[in-house]
UniProtKB/TrEMBL annotation:
The keyword Transferase applies. The keyword Zinc-finger does not apply. GO terms for molecular function: acyltransferase activity, transferring groups other than amino-acyl groups. Keywords: Acyltransferase, Transferase. Residues 16-182 form the N-acetyltransferase domain. This is GNAT family N-acetyltransferase.
């Protein structure tokens, strides 16, 4: 008797679908963050906590039409706020702080979807927005303890633009990255 085993994988090899987030996505987004935060903290990355990012922050992102989700197999696998918001501390970085840019905030990928191009697809959406709006710069910051993003950003054409601190996250260091568009 021959028995074959079938393993259910949470996501297949399809490319992520990127779309604007809607209020109905909030439970899935918050669930994703609840899975990501403990893993971040276990690796020494204290950028996020139980109180940030929270539902109100994501509601504001949705209301401003700046929150995007990545779906794989119809499930939310990633999220990012793609804004023009630059914290005043961004002036510490090696870039022109007066230049308007698309800035990626609150980038998170479901642990089961990591390595499947979700973050890259969200950052590609940031580039599409910048081009559509005639902007020449993409920016992002990441906690100094987030090794995964520090490997990812240079692979996608971002250059290291220095280290900053953020007043709303005291005691943490953040690395800045910028990608220039031609």
């Amino acid at each position: 008797m021959h028995t074959s085993l079938v393993f259910a994988l949470p996501y297949n090899r399809l490319m992520p679908t990127i779309r604007p987030a809607i209020t109905a996505d909030l439970p899935a987004i918050l669930n994703l963050v609840r899975h990501v935060v403990p893993l971040m903290q276990a690796s020494g990355n204290q950028q996020w906590s139980a109180d940030y990012p929270n539902e109100e922050v994501f509601r504001q992102d949705i209301a401003r039409e700046q929150l995007w989700v990545a779906e794989l197999d119809g499930q939310i696998a990633g999220v990012a706020a793609l804004t023009q918001d630059q914290d005043e501390e961004y002036a510490q970085a090696d870039w022109d702080p007066t230049e308007t840019a698309i800035v990626t905030h609150r980038l998170a990928v479901d642990p089961n979807a990591q390595g499947k191009g979700v973050a890259a697809a969200l950052l590609d959406q940031a580039e599409k927005l910048a081009r559509a709006w005639g902007l020449k710069s993409l920016r992002v910051d990441t906690n100094s303890e987030n090794a995964a993003t520090q490997r990812l950003f240079p692979k996608l054409g971002y250059r290291f633009a220095g280290e900053i601190t953020l007043a709303f996250r005291p005691g943490l260091r953040f690395f800045c990255y910028e990608k220039r568009l031609e």
